[in-house]
Amino acid sequence: MNTHIRGHAEDAWSTVDLDHLTIAGAAHLFRRAGFGASLHELNAAIKLPLTDVVDGLLTTNTGTEFEQQSQIMKTVIQAGNLPVHLPAWWLYRFIQSPCQAWEKLVLFWHGHFATSAAKVNSALMMLAQNEIIRRSAYGPFESLVLEISRDPAMLIYLDSATNRRNNPNENYARELLELFCVGLGNYSEIDIRELARAFTGWEIQSGRFAFNQFQHDPTLKQLLGNANIESGEQAVAWIVQQPAAAKFIAQKLYRFYVSDQTPEPEVIQSFAAILRENEFEIRPVLKTIFTSRIFYSNTAYGQKIRSPVELAIGLLRCLDATASPVHLASSLSGLGQSVFYPPSVKGWDGGKRWINSATMIGRINLITEILNHKETRFVVEKNRLDKRFDIDDAESAVRHVETVWLSQPLDDEQRSKLTDIVEKSTPRRESRLLCAFKCAATLAESQLG
Amino acid sequence: MFRAMMNGSTAFAFAFTALLSLNASAQKDVDDSPARFLPPDVSIVVSVHDLGRRWNEISQTALVERLFELPQIKVALEDKKIRDLLKGQKFIEGLFSRQLPDLLQDYTQNGATLAWKGEKEFVLLFQPSADALGRLKQTLKEFASAAALGNANQGKAELFATTYRDQDAFGLDKARIGFANGWVVASSTSEFGKSVIDRMLGDKAKSIAEESWFQQATGLARSVTSANRPAITALINVQKLRPFMKLKTDRGMDAGKELIFGGILEAIDSAPVAAAIGDIGPEGAFVRIATPRPKASATKMEYFFGLATTESAPQPIDLPSRVLSTRWHRDVGLFWKMAPQIISDENALAGIAKAESDISTLFGGMVTVSDVFEYLGPDLELIAVRPLSQTAVGKLSMQIPAFGVAGNLRNVEKAQPALRLAFQQVVSFANLNAGAGKYPPLEVMTEREAGTTMISGSYFQMGDDTMYDNPAADLYKNFSPTLGFRGDRFVLASHRDLATQILNAPEAKPGNPNSQGHIDNTIIELWPAELALVGKLNREPLIAQRMLATGQERSAATNEVDTALELLKFFETARLRLLAGDDALVLEFDTRLAGAAAQTK
To answer: In Å, how far are A440, B407, B575 from B322, measured between CA atoms?
Structure first.
């Protein structure tokens, strides 16, 4: 894997010296920017210049027909007010959306501004929040924070709707500083109280955001060293300007897209500077990540544990397959990741927290379950999956899995053992590819993305 | 070549006999004549008639033709197992130079009987035409000769020829096929086959025909059909089957289900025998399952059926665009009051007590559930019709059928105020919840005109309707809950227009006993073509739900939904009935095809 480049803090974010990606590099890019890609997509990607591939990934043009389909599903869920069907709707988008990086980014912000339908209990509001995030996912960050601060689902989730002039509720203010913008150690209890006052009167009326001037405290607030803050809007703008905000968001983006491991402080410092230079526009920042030296180095390859959603959707994307979103939603919930239902306002911890003795078995079983499920459908050629991907024998099946699914290459001994198991497990050619995926699921490498 | 074909096809020969086991034997009325050949320890006797003729008739209908055009059926036909089965069919057809339906007709025109003792012991008897009998015997001889000439088939069982009491017979492993007096006897074991042939050859041995359970089941079968040769008749010794079928005998009463099905579930649980009759043709199909009406449960059933157990569920109220009608003759008030005496399950009783308390609280404590139920007469109908709401053109929304419960009241002077009060209390409670802003509040209106009283709630309109401008609010446009009275008639409906239609319709006539003297106790009737129209109104939501359930793209989901809706149109009615007679309880399912579906090519 000659694309592996050692990452150094000083030039971590400089553009990688590659005109075209190798197949392994393309698989890595599609796994991280989106959820994964089939061999056909990867082969197409390596023929294009890297910047073109990244630009293509970062588009938001899903096509009218796809959005119409998605809208109809949303309407059905809203009409029946069925929050339990929300995860299935989003999983459908994950599987089918042509803009994989956009969906992945929306998932990132959903985990960041974590809001649970379990408390909000309104499909309409949860979908509206998802739409806000989707609309502002690529930035600027300030707009996103402002819209989220006015979002009815968030107002309910963090009790902002009852934030009154005479009795300010500090819940949202605390989380905005601690979890959404600057992080622990970068604010005081006084800042929380002052910020809560700035948000007083931000209410919900008839299911929509409304500003109630009679419940708003109009006096000036002293927030993070600025004594001139009157409104919630001014407060948000001031918070996002803090140097700590850039560093905080840089850290979170790094963990989500590059590695679960904590990097050298300089790596984050320089990445935060890029965020500020781009005025918190996220698209150019993501482009920097996906064309950077560090992204194609050993610092990033195989350095993330797949979340349950990444595991399931990645498998389907690798195989050009679709599955029952309702069924997937149920399985993923059992593994600790039910989208629209984050476990707390902190979102999902991610990294090593995804894996314990119970979830490890569940994650292996999930792969077999998806591949065996009656609603899982594969695009085939001449009625055969193996023909679509030119799988001739057990070895080519294993190599295919290695290319599209595993983030790190197998050594010769592993490959030989796996081939042997696939060979012995199924004499039927058409079954070998799926068998190889099921066998590979038991390898630790399968858990890494 | 022949040998290779034969080795692979002995299995097919037996698959053929298994196919024949779906058929039956020669009788003039309900099938009992082969019973004299069957030993008394048989537990199930299944007889079929004229399957070949029926197969031919059904396969000519427009419905079957359309079914085979469906992409899903085309895909299913590509399945390896189905392809193997079709290959087997081709092989048998080639072997006998006849199409399978004609072959079935040759061999089962006089009926065929399958008898089962338990475990893996069964015997199949059929009396083919002389030609067919000769062809079968000749074919088996050829197979057996080829097998005898060949080498041992690597330990696999081979067909062999033998005789029993000078009659031709053939064997394969433990299974046997014997011929006697124009009958063919295929059995899973030699002993079972011999015991049947012994009786055919005149041995005096007790047969199942002398068994009381068989006679009782035969009587039941006769009591539920006037047809001479129904497609299928099954006589079942339920008592004997319990250990095999793991039937529970003391599962306790499921109060909800028993209330719907009039206590028949418990009766079926304790039934000693059962008879099932089924028939199918180009016009439709039916299945009837009959059990003796247990004397011990007669008192209990009064609580379900009312004291006058001879009364029948009402005939349907004649409304346009009906989708579903469920009718009962059920004394709900008596059941509710006597629940502690007829229900032994403590959890069910606790559930009833909680429901009593919760609903009475909902009624504001001024009326109890027992009061309301006591006022309801025993003839009830739950009816659903095509959606009555108006949705803006081009606006995506779910359109739910309007539904209502109608019946007669006892003690009208007291009943009407009590029901009105309960209704108003429920509306008030709903409006309290509406205060949370999730749905619009109900505005209540009372209308009195020419002996009719209507209390209806309609969802509050907010001018330009922006207050609840979301699809969930659109859902509420399907509803304007209404309680209506005219004389002793009452209706509680989801929509005011339906309540009006029901009260204006001619009063439902009382039901009559059928030709066998059985009365309808519960009838669930569905009009699939109307259901298809409701589905068409909700096509987009159905497609979306299918996409969420399967992950398919829109085109595939659309195809599935459209296919299902199109198939529904082929059926005129589908009906489930519970009938009660003095001596029998009968569960019947029947469906009739719409004219276009039944048309032949």
So the answer is: 56, 17, 13
Contact between residue B172 and residue B157 where contact means Cβ atoms under 8 Å apart: yes
Query: Which carries the bigger pLDDT value, residue A163 or residue B450?
Result: A163
Q: In this predicted structure, what is the pLDDT of residue B599?
A: 67
- Chain A residues with CB-CB distance to B541 below 8 A: 72, 75-76, 79
pLDDT tens, B109-135? 788 999 998 778 999 999 888 888 998
The reply to whether residue B552 touches residue A377, judged by beta carbons under 8 angstroms, is: yes
B213 in A contact zone (CB under 8 Å)? no
Contact A92 B551 (CB under 8 A): yes
CA distance B372 to B332: 10
| Residues A336 and A309 sit within 8 Å (Cβ to Cβ) | no
Task: Report whether pLDDT(B591) > 70.
Answer: yes
Indicate left, alpha or beta for B517 from its phi (over 0: left) and psi (-120 to 50: alpha): left
Q: Tell me: the pLDDT tens digits for B340-398? A: 777 777 887 888 888 888 888 888 777 888 888 999 998 899 999 998 876 555 555 67
Contact residues on chain B for A329, CB-CB shorter than 8 A:
none
- Single-letter residue type at A220: L
Contact at CB, B553 and A72, closer than 8 angstroms: no
Which pLDDT does position A195 carry in this prediction? Answer: 98
pLDDT of residue A106 exceeding 90 = yes
ipTM of this model? 0.85
Residue tagged 């991907």 (tokens): A389
Going from the C-alpha of A320 to that of each of A29, A40, A90, A389, the distances in angstroms are: 17, 9, 18, 10
Measured between beta carbons, the chain A residues lying within 8 angstroms of B545 are 76
Q: How far is B550 from chain A (nearest CA, A)?
A: 4
Judge contact between B598 and B283, C-beta under 8 A. yes
Using a CB–CB cutoff of 8 Å, tell me whether A412 touches chain B: no
- pLDDT band of residue B330 (cuts 50, 70, 90) is confident
d(CA B306, CA B303): 5
Per the CB < 8 Å rule, is A76 touching B545? yes
Beta-carbon contacts below 8 Å between A and B: 81
Q: How far apart are CA B9 and CA B84, in angstroms?
A: 12
Q: What is the full DSSP assignment across B437-482?
A: SSSPPEEEEEEEETTEEEEEEEEPP-TTT-TT-SHHHHHHTT---E
Beta-carbon separation of A72 and B543 below 8 A: yes
Sort out which chain A residues have CB atoms less than 8 A from B543's CB and list them: 72
User: Do A88 and B474 make contact, defined as CB atoms within 8 angstroms?
Assistant: no
Q: What is the DSSP string of A139-205?
A: S-HHHHHHHHHT-HHHHHHTTGGG-BTTB---HHHHHIIIIIIS-TTS--HHHHHHHHHHTTTEEEE
pLDDT in tens, A47-62: 999 999 999 999 998 8
Per residue in B404-430, pLDDT tens? 999 999 999 999 999 999 999 999 888
Which residue has tokens 């346009």?
B320
pLDDT attached to residue B10: 40
Measured in whole angstroms, the distance separating CA A448 from the mean position of its chain's CA atoms is 15
CA B325-B330-B331 angle, to 5 degrees, is 145
Q: Assess A76–B contact: CB distance below 8 Å, yes or no.
A: yes
Q: Which residues of B fall within a CB distance of 8 Å from A376? A: 551
Which tens digit of pLDDT belongs to each residue from B522-553?
899 999 999 999 999 889 889 999 999 999 88
Do residues A195 and A204 make contact, with C-beta atoms less than 8 angstroms apart? no
Q: A15-27 pLDDT, tens per residue? A: 998 889 999 999 9
Residue B5, pLDDT above cutoff 70 = no
What span, in angstroms and rounded, lies between the C-alpha atoms of B160 and B171? Answer: 5
Instruction: Tell me the shortest Cα–Cα distance from B470 to chain A, in angstroms.
Output: 8
Distance between B354 CA and the closest CA of chain A, angstroms: 26
pTM of the entire predicted model: 0.79
pLDDT of residue A192: 97
